[in-house]
Amino acid sequence: MKLKKRLIISFLIIIIVPMLLAFLLFLGITRAQKDQEASQRRALYFANSLSLLQNNTSNEIEILKKWAEKNPQNFQKESLIRKMNESLQEKHSFLIQREGLKILFDGSQDEVRPSFTELPEYGRLRDGETLVETVGDVPVTIQQVDYGYGNGKRGSVFVFTTANRLLPEGQKILFDYLASALLILLFTAAVLISWLYGGIMPKIRKMQKAAEEIEKGKLDHVIDVKGSDELTDLARAMERMRKRLSADAIQKLEAEDAQRQLISNIAHDLKTPLTSITGYSEGILDGIANTPEKQEKYVRTIHSKAKEMNALLNELSIYSKIDTDRIPYNFVPLDVGEFFQSCNEEVGMDLANQDIGLSYYNELPKGCAVIADPEQLTRVIHNIVGNAVKYKKPEGNLSISMRLRDAGDYVQVEIEDNGQGISKEDLPHIFDRLYRGDKSRTTKIKGSGIGLSIVKKIISDHGGQIWATSKLGEGSVFYFVLRKYSEPENTGEQA
Ligand code: ADP
After folding, report:
1. Residue 362 near residue 402 (C-beta atoms within 8 A)
2. Atom of ligand 1 nearest to the CA of 265
């Protein structure tokens, strides 16, 4: 559930639940009251404390009034008067009966003992009237019922209610209500807090733990949070971040590993020609090459080994530049036919020395041009042809063919060999940086795995594309395309 929705629900619950509970509680309290009058009395308390004091004894007043109207003899029965007083006492009240100047019954207690003179005279308080007085220091209400026997003899009954006893009772009710309201609020708040807490905290805790793990560098701690709220979105974003960091860390480790591998390969590849150079130069210095022919052979070998080292170092330097996009290009319009013709002648001579046949086909129209850097394009050809030589079959003759085809807006170059071929598993990766085919790694064929990645980078920097097809044991074909270039037509008039 969305956090926003959760907060809106909480807000509604805060308002509705206490109201509902308060209503139920009120109903419960009033129903539970066996004494209907008491319940009414409690309710009335909040409206008017004086009416509460009056209602407190209304039953007894009614009975006394009935006696006065219909049965005044009852006032002469002391047992009835005493009973009435007992009933009043339960309600913090008592009764005083006066006939003429005589007090017939005095139900007053020690703390409230009104003197005879404090009693209102006959007929002073009418029906429903209540006098509020203090007797001693005690506030009291006085109600009066007058009666007569018909023979001129008459009397009054005074009902005293001590307010200071009844009021605390009312205060207690008020306190009960307030305490209930407080409890309801506390209950609602507790339910809400636990609901909100339960929905939010576990997720926050999980994220906190995950953040601590990431801080420690442990990137394999999966942040597994389910739901559809904002915190879950945040947790998912954190999980994506963790995965990304983890992938980057793995990539970094792989790159470092590859770098180490490269250094070790290069060191190894440099060592072999260097050993030859040292050996042959020592042969000259020691006089082992004692004929001009021998000396020339030694010097040629030293020269070719030095070139080998140079090529290797060049590759390394290009590799470091490729990483930072610092290959120096010198783009010029190039006649494709002319360029590949001379390239073919140069490479062909080299290959002929190694008894490798090179065939060349040009199916392009004359004058077909591309924008390219001849030096880098030569590097591409040398690299692909060099690989064909490197990965030739141990037995049998190697033959290489170079074809130029017309592919609409593009010139397509194909270089095919009948060498070892590349396995299906290796083929998708041969243009990756530092990737060496399975076989190349296990055989003694030297290499760093950067040649084809440089080739790919050069072709893509020319706006072209490169790919290869191959069959293991039969040979490979490398293809690349470059966009054709046509000179802007010169429409200017000759002066
Ligand atoms: P290197 O030759 O230094 O290993 P490259 O990037 O030039 O690195 O080539 C990558 C891999 O592609 C080689 O290790 C090899 O397995 C495979 N490969 C490239 N060219 C050929 C080819 N003509 N015939 C067979 N395998 C090849």
Report:
1. no
2. 3
Question: In testing the pocket of ligand 1, which one of 269, 314, 356, 440 has its CB within 8 Å of the most ligand atoms?
Answer: 440
pTM: 0.49
- CB of 400 shorter than 6 A to ligand 1: no
pLDDT the model gives residue 80: 93
CA 452 to ligand 1: nearest atom? 6
Whether 430 is in the pocket of ligand 1, judged by its Cβ within 6 Å, is yes
Residues of the chain predicted below pLDDT 50: 43-47, 492-495
Distance CA(466)–CA(480), nearest Å, equals 4
Which position has the token pair 């506030």? Answer: 139
The reply to whether ligand 1 has any atom less than 6 angstroms from the CB of 456 is no
Tell me the CB-side half-sphere exposure of residue 21, using CA atoms within 13 A: 17
Predicted pLDDT at 133: 81
The CA-based angle 221-222-227, given to 5 degrees, is 145
Question: In three state form, how does the secondary structure of the chain look?
Answer: CCHHHHHHHHHHHHHHHHHHHHHHHHHHHHHHCCCHHHHHHHHHHCCCHHHHHHHHCHHHHHHHHHHHHHCHHHHHCHHHHHHHHHHHHCCCEEEEEEECCEEEEECCCCCCCCCHHHCCCCCCCCCCCCEEEEECCEEEEEEEEEEECCCCCEEEEEEEEEHHHHHHHHHHHHHHHHHHHHHHHHHHHHHHHHHHHHHHHHHHHHHHHHHHHHHCCCCCCCCCCCCCCHHHHHHHHHHHHHHHHHHHHHHHHHHHHHHHHHHHHHHHHHHHHHHHHHHHHHHHHCCCCCCHHHHHHHHHHHHHHHHHHHHHHHHHHHHHHHHCCCCCCCCEEEEHHHHHHHHHHHHHHHHHHCCCEEEEEECCCCCCEEEECHHHHHHHHHHHHHHHHHCCCCCCCCEEEEEEEEECCEEEEEEEECCCCCCCCCHHHCCCCCCCCHHHHHCCCCCCCCHHHHHHHHHHHCCCEEEEEEECCCEEEEEEEEEEECCCCCCCCCC
